[in-house]
UniProtKB/TrEMBL annotation:
GO terms for biological process: chorismate metabolic process; L-phenylalanine biosynthetic process. Residues 92-268 form the Prephenate dehydratase domain. Residues 281-359 form the ACT domain. Keywords: Amino-acid biosynthesis, Aromatic amino acid biosynthesis, Coiled coil, Cytoplasm, Isomerase, Lyase, Multifunctional enzyme, Phenylalanine biosynthesis. This is Bifunctional chorismate mutase/prephenate dehydratase. It comes from Stagnimonas aquatica. InterPro entries: ACT-like_dom_sf, ACT_dom, Chor_mutase/pphenate_deHydtase, Chorismate_II_sf, CM_dom_sf, CM_II_prokaryot, G/b/e-P-prot_chorismate_mutase, Preph_deHydtase. SMART domains: CM_2. Catalyzes the Claisen rearrangement of chorismate to prephenate and the decarboxylation/dehydration of prephenate to phenylpyruvate. The record marks T261 as: Essential for prephenate dehydratase activity. The keyword Plastid does not apply.
Amino acid sequence: MTVRTLPQARTEIDALDRQIQELISQRARIAQEVAHIKQRQGDTGDHYRPSREAEVLRAAMARNTGPLTDEVVAKLMREIMSACLSLESPLTIAYLGPEGTYTQAAVLKHFGEAVTARPVTAIDEIFRDVESGAADYGVVPVENSIGGVVSNTLDALVHTKLRICGEVTLPVHHHLLSVESDPSKVSKVYAHAQSFAQCRKWLDARLPKADREALASNGAAAQLAKQEGAGVAAIASLQAGKLNGLNILASNIEDDPSNTTRFLIIGKQDPTPTGHDLTAVVLSAHRNQPGALFTLLQPFADAKLDLTRIESRPMKGAPVQDYFFFVDFIGHANDEPVKKALDAVRANAAFFKVLGSYPQAAI
């Protein structure tokens, strides 16, 4: 091992920084050339390719020899890709606003900083923005490890023509934020309903008398806490606290430290197989047929497909015994064994729809 003096180490770092910067610039120029190649081939769509990006991130982690962690290496590569992609085709991503929500954090984790993040006020609006072309992609929450599924997202997926193009998993840490500096003075707390569910034990123990008012997002909760001032607090992210100039009265107040939210990327693409894919379908069984659900799911077992999630939702406007079943499994719809299984499921279903096949989250 070479023993360097401090000046020698700094000189070597400066030289490496120049090399890194030169290589990033070279990569960016090639990315611009890729855009021109695609244009000559008649590809006029956006240049974001979920499968390609997932493969690049996995390759970066596979090459990693330390001392940086795989996750850090992947995040660095994500930002380089994001900056280069913005030279090819700047992306607009719709998310559940306002600024400071966990959905915005999911946008930045998946797409990097070099995108235009477009906040909207409801999950339905995210779908409409992408369908209309006002946004290239949308990021929607679908389930939380404590609070369960996000029903608005599942309901919208049944009827949309959009596809699931990717996923993001985000550890969620909640913080009690206020203009106050003394938690004992808090008499009202704003938060999203899911956040109240995720922090119920802490609130019951520390703020049992405080009123709880659910809002559309934690970002909105932080804004109200700032506007209303004394006696009011919000449960939200650190970023929301910084944006609104709020004090941190308590950190990590979620009941489960492993609290994680999963988000879906929605768009108009059908990602190609990567070998690390998930497929999501929604289906319904014929009524009044004993064993109908078992019959529907049997082809998955026959094909030895690993089901990762099964969720039921009542059909809107239908009798209470009619349900949609949302099924996720490992594999891509273009894989031959998966094709055969889906054909068998489709033949027995009253309703059947593939919501998308997409790369599993790399980080």
